[in-house]
Amino acid sequence: MDIDALREDTPGTADRVHLNNAGAGLLSRRTLKAMTTHLELEAAIGGYEAADRERERIDATYANIARLVGGRPDEIALFDNSTHAWNAAFYSIAFAPGDRILTGRAEYGSNVLAYFQVAQRTGAEVVVVPDDASGQLDTAALADLIDERTKLVGVSHVPTSGGLVNPAVEIGRITRAAGVPFLLDATQSVGQFPVDVTEIGCDMLTATGRKFLRGPRGTGFLWVRSEALEHLDPFVTEIGAATWDGERGFTWHDGARRFGTWEMSYSGVLGLDAAVRQALALGLDEIGQRATALGAYLRDRLDALPGVTTHDLGSTRCAIVTAKVAAVPTSEVAAALARQGVNVTTTFPEQTQFDTEHRGVHPLVRLSPHYYNTEAELDRAVEVIGAVARAAR
Ligand SMILES: *Cc1c(COP(=O)(O)O)cnc(C)c1O
């Protein structure tokens, strides 16, 4: 990877140390250009006319996303974020009293709320699979818990709250053997390292455009295995999802398009497409190796600082690094970094309710480098945190 060239192609790297790729990755010039060009075309000739002219590239977006995750173009639906993509899959499952939803402690906040809403509505039950000693989802416990009552296994691949990578392939092996649908929230993992639906064996996968994929805000997608469609009854319909058959009713569109909406932001779609193509061109293996190595570099240096602890769980960890400075509120650490031009966020207790209740460590400072960051930038962040820690001792 030519890091200098990649940074040159990323305007946001000029004046800031951007360590918030788990929040929103920086757009490349190419992606920005794809979006502004389309907006200008819409302004010049009309929105519908611009979409008609760019139809081939818009259609190609589905194929490029399919390549990214190892699925088929007709298994992709586009959304305005990951949550709506996830809702489209989850709320399309028919739950009955006594059905069980198995999930993990790292599950994303909105998913947890949805599980409980559906449990209250239908009499289904939410069961949280415990972690193993390393802090990842305990696959032996999952294998024990999975039974004929299990209607869904829903897992966050990488949580919003730390560097854990849940053992998705092993989870997929168990769900397949049991014949239970597996919904993988891959919002933090797609674009960060290779995620392949065939290797994992999940049935539904959701992701967002703006995080490690470096696409625009307000984009996301759902992948649904074709064979899973027959078990899903889309929870809403509209003219973008189905064809009117007269008095007889309607027929769902083929494949995953039945989950989509007619209207969408085409500048967003084309920006997402540009970001996906860029990730494919760079190679997810290479992206993953570098992002993970930068995460490990940062974690090691923070752990070496007196008064600083990192809190990333699991035996496989990624580019997301979470840390705490003894006796200093997390918001103050984040503010000190912001004053030095270092973009980070803090974890929010309500975004990972089970993890928050179990560990009691949130909020933490969350630093999330990506392949275009440099070791020198990480050193700068470590220096700022080191100074905060020294001042508090
Ligand atoms: C950010 C995040 C989401 C939500 O994605 P949106 O695009 O904001 O809807 C879901 N799951 C995880 C694990 C996340 O980190």
From TrEMBL:
GO molecular function: transaminase activity
Domain Aminotransferase class V: 18-380
Signal sequence residues: none
InterPro entries in UniProt: Aminotrans_V_dom, Aminotrans_V_PyrdxlP_BS, PyrdxlP-dep_Trfase, PyrdxlP-dep_Trfase_major, PyrdxlP-dep_Trfase_small
Keywords, alphabetical: Aminotransferase, Pyridoxal phosphate, Transferase
Cofactor(s) the protein needs: pyridoxal 5'-phosphate
Source organism, top-level taxon: Bacteria
Family: Belongs to the class-V pyridoxal-phosphate-dependent aminotransferase family.
Protein name: Aminotransferase class V-fold PLP-dependent enzyme
Species of the source: Streptomyces hebeiensis
Lineage start: Bacteria, Bacillati, Actinomycetota, Actinomycetes, Kitasatosporales
